[in-house]
Amino acid sequence: MYQTFDFLGFMHYNGMTRTGKYTIGHKISKKKRKLKQQAITKWIKEHRTTKFKETIMLLNKKLIGLYAYYGINGMLNELYKIYYHTIYALRSSIFRRSKR
Fold first, then answer.
1. Cα separation values, 83 from 65, 89, 100, Å
2. Domain boundaries, the chain
3. pLDDT tens string 29-65
4. Which of 95, 66, 69, 96 is nearest to 83 (CA)?
C-alpha cells in the first residue's frame, strides 16, 4: 500500500524504479497545481491588452520560476501539465482579442 503526504507543494509517495528498487516519488500536490494554473490563467486575462511579445517574455519568466522550484527528478509529466495549461489559456485569450 502506498502512503502519501504533502509537504512544500509536493506530494511524496513510495514508488519503485524501473529496476524494481525502492524510491520516493514526487508529484505536484493537486491543490498547488490547481492554484498555479488558476493564477496563470488570471494573470493572462489581466495582461490580455498588453503587447504580445511583452506578455510572452513575462510569462516565460513565470514558467522558468515554476520549473526552478518544481524541476526535480520524476516531475517532467507534472511540469508538462502546467505548460500545456499555460498554452491553452494563452491561446484562448489570444482568440478573444479583437479580430482586426
1. 12, 10, 28
2. 29-96
3. 889 999 999 999 999 999 988 898 999 999 999 999 9
4. 66
